[in-house]
Specification:
Strand order of the largest sheet: 1-2-3-4-5-6-7-8
Helix content: 25-40%
CATH architecture: Alpha-Beta Barrel
Number of domains: 1
Radius of gyration: 16 Å
Structural class: alpha/beta
Order of helices and strands: EHEHEHEHEEHEHEHH
Largest sheet: 8 strands, parallel, barrel
Low-confidence stretches: none
């Protein structure tokens, strides 16, 4: 397995000093920034969209990872890609045709991903694994930052890793939700490749020390 990557979820940053917070995690050595784009319909919360991604894009060349929790991914995906997103994950239960939407994301120059809620069965994505670069496996219910890791997600990581391996798919697993220095090594051993963490990075200062904790846990 390639070196695990750590993405800082911008939703957990302090919006009153957003640029300072984002610069701090970049300087601390995260591998990318994660953007949870919510429309208030697919999930109850509303966060941000293309304008914020475009505003932060000049700060770094690190990968920008957009998770679209929206009813109309075909409308939003081109916007966030134009704004600077390198990876875009969409949900199988959103409006539209999943395979076609994933192909369109790739055609726009981004890496497509499919996002799986805790209660969504893996069978809903098995026939698009040839069309994605990664699966964003949610280990909390989508919509809010700071939730605790759902224990059943461990078994789901194992099952997904087996599905990818048996199908010889060139796909990585990104785990998002409740990822902490205390559990990240175990999740990697179960089959996860990359990790998204929000409050567990932004709420623990200084960011340099916190990112170091994650790195040491994975070493």
């Amino acid at each position: 397995m390639s070196k695990s990557r750590l993405f800082a979820s911008v939703m957990a940053a302090n919006y009153r000093c957003l640029e300072d917070d984002v610069r701090a995690v970049i300087d601390a050595g995260v591998d990318g920034l994660h953007f949870d784009v919510m429309d208030g319909n697919f999930v109850p919360n509303i966060t941000f969209g293309k304008d914020l991604i475009a505003a932060l894009r000049p700060l770094t060349d690190l990968p920008f990872d957009a998770h679209l929790m929206v009813n109309q991914p075909d409308l939003i995906a081109p916007q966030v890609i134009e704004a600077g997103a390198d990876r875009v994950a969409i949900h199988p239960e959103a409006e539209g045709h999943l395979q076609r939407s994933l192909t369109h994301i790739r055609g726009l120059g981004a890496r497509p991903g499919v996002a799986v809620d805790p209660a969504i069965p893996l069978e809903m994505i098995q026939w698009v694994l040839d069309d994605v670069d990664y699966v964003l496996l949610l280990s909390v219910n989508p919509g809010y930052s700071g939730q605790e890791f759902i224990p059943a997600s461990r078994r789901k990581i194992v099952a997904l890793a087996q599905m990818i391996r048996e199908g010889s798919h060139d796909v990585t697993i990104t785990v998002d939700g409740g990822v902490e220095p205390s559990n990240i090594a175990e999740l990697a051993q179960l089959g996860a490749d990359d990790f998204v963490s929000g409050g567990s990075i932004f709420y623990h200062r200084p960011a340099t020390d916190r990112v170091r904790e994650f790195r040491q846990a994975l070493s």
